[in-house]
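Explain this one:

_____
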Amino acid sequence: MKVIYSTEGHSLGPSVVTIGVFDGVHKGHHAILSETVKQARERGYDAVALTFDPHPRHVHQPDVEMPLITTMDDRLNMLEAAGIDVVVVQKYDLDYASTSPEEFIDHQLIGKLGAKAVVVGEDVRFGRKNSGDGVFLCNYGGDRLDVTLIDDLGGDSGRRYSSTWIRELLDEGNVRKAGKVLGRPHRLRGVVQHGYKRGRELGFPTANLPGEGIGEVPRDGVYAGWIVRRIPESTATVHLPAAISIGSNPQFEGEVRTVEAHALGRSDLNLYGEEIAIDFVDYVRPMLKLDSVKALQEQMDDDLRKTAEMLGVPVSYRVDPRDVTAW
């Protein structure tokens, strides 16, 4: 897949184009991407996805905190997996946002991207103040473009698949339902950093990620999921069953929110400085402050058992702190 950050010097088209931020690349997006690729293959054209960076809301509402559900790297990987041939990453700023719907169709879709057909969701918006929509696209561009509008309702729920819906579910801690809307487990990605090593001292060594800049972090609590790491000098990955803790560590009066993942029963991993992904499967329990460290250890043992059951893997018990040297 080719990724283009500027169309200057590139000759694109003929193509079938789809448009969107594609944050999360959820089931609704996959319906649109699938139809885009299908039409492109039938016509012998390139399947092109026009996406935007930064997220438009970050430009129009810079004071409103809204982490992306997926990092740009993961977004590009998933677009490639969907069969897209070319991704154009459009720099989004206030000048670009002032483009009229007519200019967007004439100069970008047809002029720069060589669009012969466009596939978008029924809720598509584009151009100055989002004044362009699916009806406008059909009416203004219909004599030059074959336009397909995709219904992206969320199955039996009657609700449209959307990044907003996913964020609501993650804020509730409902990672299982979020995974159903996404069509895969919700994923965070970041570089493992040094923590306070309290988990290691308790016999639960953890890979620690910062609480910001890694994707949309679910509400505080304990979760079952997977640590996903790349095998060195390879494109292959390995999935390690993990108990994941999100919060500021109230047991030790912590103040900084972090994501900590313990690979069940593993004490031999050296992950510091390594980029990993964490996939969320299910919610285990809320974050608690217990009466003693012993009570915390007993609770964490129970967390491991529940996590193993949820993931369908053999139960791995807490490792002996004396064996922990690499975390």
Summary: The CA atoms of residues 224 and 307 lie 5 Å apart.
